[in-house]
TrEMBL record:
<dbReference type="Pfam" id="PF00588">
    <property type="entry name" value="SpoU_methylase"/>
</dbReference>
<feature type="domain" description="tRNA/rRNA methyltransferase SpoU type">
    <location>
        <begin position="27"/>
        <end position="169"/>
    </location>
</feature>
<dbReference type="GO" id="GO:0003723">
    <property type="term" value="F:RNA binding"/>
</dbReference>
<dbReference type="InterPro" id="IPR029026">
    <property type="entry name" value="tRNA_m1G_MTases_N"/>
</dbReference>
<keyword id="KW-0489">Methyltransferase</keyword>
<dbReference type="InterPro" id="IPR029028">
    <property type="entry name" value="Alpha/beta_knot_MTases"/>
</dbReference>
<dbReference type="InterPro" id="IPR004441">
    <property type="entry name" value="rRNA_MeTrfase_TrmH"/>
</dbReference>
<dbReference type="GO" id="GO:0006396">
    <property type="term" value="P:RNA processing"/>
</dbReference>
<dbReference type="GO" id="GO:0005829">
    <property type="term" value="C:cytosol"/>
</dbReference>
<keyword id="KW-0808">Transferase</keyword>
<dbReference type="InterPro" id="IPR001537">
    <property type="entry name" value="SpoU_MeTrfase"/>
</dbReference>
<dbReference type="GO" id="GO:0008173">
    <property type="term" value="F:RNA methyltransferase activity"/>
</dbReference>
<dbReference type="GO" id="GO:0032259">
    <property type="term" value="P:methylation"/>
</dbReference>
<protein>
    <submittedName>
        <fullName>tRNA/rRNA methyltransferase (SpoU)</fullName>
    </submittedName>
</protein>
Length: 178
C-alpha cells in the first residue's frame, strides 16, 4: 500500500490566533536555567504541538524574540504563552499560589517513575526542567511537590532537556486531554 506524504496545506493546522483561543491541557512547563536557545525553541514547539497552557522561562533561560529560539521553535514562540521570572522559586511560588501541583523532572531520592504518575484531569500541573549539566536546582526541588524520573535503561544517566520535555509533555497530554 502506498502512503503519500501530506502537503503542509493538507495538515489543517490552526492559526496562532486560533491556538491562543483553543482549549489547553492544564500544564505549565517551567525551564530552570536552560542555557541552549535551541533547546528552548524545541520545547516551545513541543508545547505548541500538545497545547500546553504556558511556559515559564526562568533565570538564565533566554526569552523571545530570539533568532536561535526561533530557529527550532519555528514560530511556536508566538503562539505559546510565556512569562519570564528572574528567580525560578518566584515562578514556583506563583504556580503553587494559583493551585498547581508542581513536579521537578529530576533523578532524586523518592522520585516517582513517569510511568507510575496518575494525573487528575480536573487538577492543574507544572513540570520543571533544568539546566543541561546541573539539572533542576536543589532549592527548586525542595519547593516542588515531588520529583518525576524518566526511566532509562542504557549506559547514560540523562537525556537532552528538550527530549526529556517531549517525553514528559506527551505523557501528561495523554492523561490530561479530555
Amino acid at each position: 500500500m502506498k502512503r503519500r506524504k501530506l502537503k503542509l496545506e493538507e495538515l489543517n493546522r490552526i492559526s496562532v490566533d486560533e491556538f491562543r483561543e483553543a482549549r489547553k491541557i492544564p500544564l505549565v512547563v517551567v525551564l530552570d536555567n536552560v542555557r541552549s536557545r535551541h533547546n528552548i525553541g524545541s520545547i516551545f514547539r513541543t508545547c505548541d504541538a500538545f497545547r500546553v497552557e504556558e511556559i515559564l522561562l526562568c533565570g538564565i533561560t533566554a526569552t523571545p524574540p530570539n533568532a536561535e529560539i526561533h530557529k527550532t521553535a519555528l514560530g511556536a514562540e508566538d503562539a505559546v504563552r510565556w512569562q519570564y521570572f528572574e528567580d525560578t522559586l518566584e515562578g514556583v511560588k506563583a504556580l503553587k499560589t494559583s493551585g498547581y501541583t508542581v513536579f521537578s523532572i529530576e533523578q532524586a531520592e523518592n522520585s516517582v517513575s513517569l510511568g507510575k504518575i496518575e494525573l487528575d484531569s480536573e487538577k492543574k500541573y507544572a513540570v520543571i526542567l533544568g539546566h543541561e549539566v546541573h539539572g533542576v536546582q536543589q532549592s527548586v526541588i525542595d519547593a516542588s511537590d515531588g520529583c518525576i524520573e524518566i526511566p532509562q535503561y542504557g549506559t547514560k544517566h540523562s537525556l537532552n532537556v528538550s527530549v526529556a520535555a517531549g517525553i514528559v509533555i506527551w505523557d501528561f497530554f495523554q492523561q490530561l486531554r479530555k
